[in-house]
Amino acid sequence: MTTKTVLGTCHHDCPDSCGWIATVEDGVAVKLRGNPDHPFSQGELCPKVNHFIDRVYSPDRLLHPLVRTGPKGEGRFERTTWEQALAVVAERLHETKDRWGGESILPWWDAGTQGLIQMSSLDRRLFARIGASQLTGSLCGGTASDGTASTYGSSHAADPMDVRRARFILLWGTNTKLTNRHLWPFIEEARRNGAEVVVIDPIQTATAAAADRHIQPLPGTDVALMLGMMHVLIRDDLLDHDYLDQYSTGFEALSEHVAGWTPERAASECGLTAEVIEELARSYATARPAHIRTLIGAEHHENGAMFFRALTCLPVLTGSWRDLGGGISKSTHSWAGANVDDGVFDPEPLGRERRGINMNHLGRALTDPSMDPRVRALFVWNGNPVVTVPNASLIRKGLERDDLFTVVSEQFMTDTARYADVVFPATTQLEQVDVVTAWGHLYLGWNEPAIAPLGESVPNTELWRRLATALGFEDEDLFESDRSLIESAVSGVDLDLLQSKGLVRVDVPAVLLPYAEGGFGTASGRAELYSEAMAAGGLDPLPTYHPPTEGPTGPLAERYPLSLMTPKHHTRFLNSSYSHLPKHGPKENGPFVEMDPADAESRGISNGDKVVVWNDRARLTLPAVISDRLRPGVVSVPFGWWSDDHGEPMTANSLTSDTLTDWGGGVAYLDTLVEIASI
Ligand SMILES: Nc1nc2c(c(=O)[nH]1)N[C@H]1C(S)=C(S)[C@@H](COP(=O)(O)OP(=O)(O)OC[C@H]3O[C@@H](n4cnc5c(=O)[nH]c(N)nc54)[C@H](O)[C@@H]3O)O[C@H]1N2
Ligand SMILES: Nc1nc2c(c(=O)[nH]1)N[C@H]1C(S)=C(S)[C@@H](COP(=O)(O)OP(=O)(O)OC[C@H]3O[C@@H](n4cnc5c(=O)[nH]c(N)nc54)[C@H](O)[C@@H]3O)O[C@H]1N2
Ligand code: SF4
Ligand SMILES: [Mo]
Fold this sequence. Notes:
By secondary structure, this protein is of the alpha/beta class. Helix content is 28%, strand content 17%.
């Protein structure tokens, strides 16, 4: 028997990008454990990926190309050869392009793998050559980046690992213990040194329960809370005047602007008390270092970019960016740019703009008859939009269209793949080479394939090369090898060293103090509390609170009085991945609707009752769970579950709003209103 160990990196859309070690016996992966040399993940994986080998060898893995034999959505397919499947797809794409134009073809992908080359690389060139529509917007992270850049000129922020040096930690709209579990030990380290941990979240999450203080505002109202905090900081002169003078613009305008935002006014918007806001502002401004930690939870509101715009003003007012362990940490993705440039995958300019379609508007794009040209062919990989994208009922409706040709590359027969005309089998991270640029820490990870591809599955890059051949293209750049793609996108790193060690720190200073002495990426080089650029773009030049239109003060609230949260909830799910696997998502555990005792009582609902949750988009029948984790007027249906055994949709996203965020191209699925009744 031959045994070897292979270094890799988790590919999941998760901030932790853990290093792993696979043990392989006679070509079969038998064990997967965390790489103890990884400075961030420190030898641990997680309850999802501890069973990754079961996922790889699951009897449900798709191992051969399939063509549909039953109605769309029913999931009846038969096996075919690669040659035949490619021929069918190539013929249909040619026909579609000839008849309706290239823009009638839409590629849709997300970060099912966030590996550098397997997430998106050759596809960009191929779909440009076809002249297809371009996917724009972001389901995750774009709004947070753009909101931050409105104040700082880039989305650079602190090294999350420096949270360990903080004496005050504000976890604002992030559920660290669930979604970013390997950061928690660094928070605990700070705590042992006396740090106080405060969580601001409309839900009493596991993270909130573990904190010293939990502040529970109404969803989507944080900008008002921040304006109230700024009011207190300025009123009580808890400011770093020297920092403001040297490194910011617009302080006078901001002072005038927040003068009316008394803690009382902010408190009434947020459903808090003025004392809570006073106390929060004071503890934030007087403790040093004070570290704000956020990820993406709060971006999914109509005012999502404004959340980050306002948040980024706070450490400028207090000068907290001077301190190692201070400032704000969020996605570290922009730092990876020091060594990784995925722009090299972009196609040569075509000399004309291709139509852009926001990825969050998939349902609209598939159902809007006025679109010219209508979408006639759809390619999906690295995502399961029927479960994960808002207004999912509309997506289903679109995918049912007889005149739509759908191709899906997948590892499993997901709710989305069930609508495909042709399904291609995809490899997993154990079977493909990649480099992973983390967004939760500063380490690049190498992923060496540990085993040969199972069945006839192929990496996404190989699918694009095969498809390019089938379509009759000969351009060399469509056939670049995986190694060459990596070499062209990664610079300033010894790739052999990266491959042999499995990880390398990105080339940024060992002591990362991005804004200790200004250095902001704005036109003025300063943090822009008042932003000329925003004003020029027709947006508020100052941080401004706009309540959501689909919220308790909006026009729909009379019919639908309850705000619906649809959070990540399950330690064994990664978005919709794993919810179908036996060790991860026993169907009897969910989904459910969680509600406050007051909302339940006024509707005559008892714990465990079957209830219907509805709005104009959909109706879901779910068991009620009555708890004190929410507040009256706010209910929660956790997301991630596929449809039930009868094909009935169970995804929370059937109900969610696909209104876009204020800027940044994201989506406000957390501004959704519903009503609930027992049945
Ligand atoms: N176990 C597990 N881990 C995951 C994932 C998973 O599905 N499962 N998904 C991964 C992915 S793709 C991502 S992007 C990250 C996301 O990581 P996070 O951003 O930490 O995760 P979310 O759960 O989306 O949101 C965090 C919190 O924001 C809160 N929130 C929502 N609206 C508001 C608001 O208006 N104000 C405030 N203050 N808080 C609000 C939610 O209640 C939630 O508890 O997690 C990753 N990690
Ligand atoms: N209501 C609500 N909606 C949400 C969220 C929420 O918190 N609440 N979270 C949002 C967020 S932050 C995100 S990031 C999105 C995630 O949305 P999606 O990206 O759609 O997430 P997954 O459901 O994990 O789907 C990833 C799919 O990619 C496939 N895959 C993995 N690796 C590969 C590969 O190498 N090749 C191919 N071809 N396929 C592969 C997996 O099998 C899986 O089916 O969901 C968003 N939607
Ligand atoms: S899903 Fe996240 S926490 Fe789990 S192994 Fe992958 S990177 Fe680590
Ligand atoms: Mo995400």
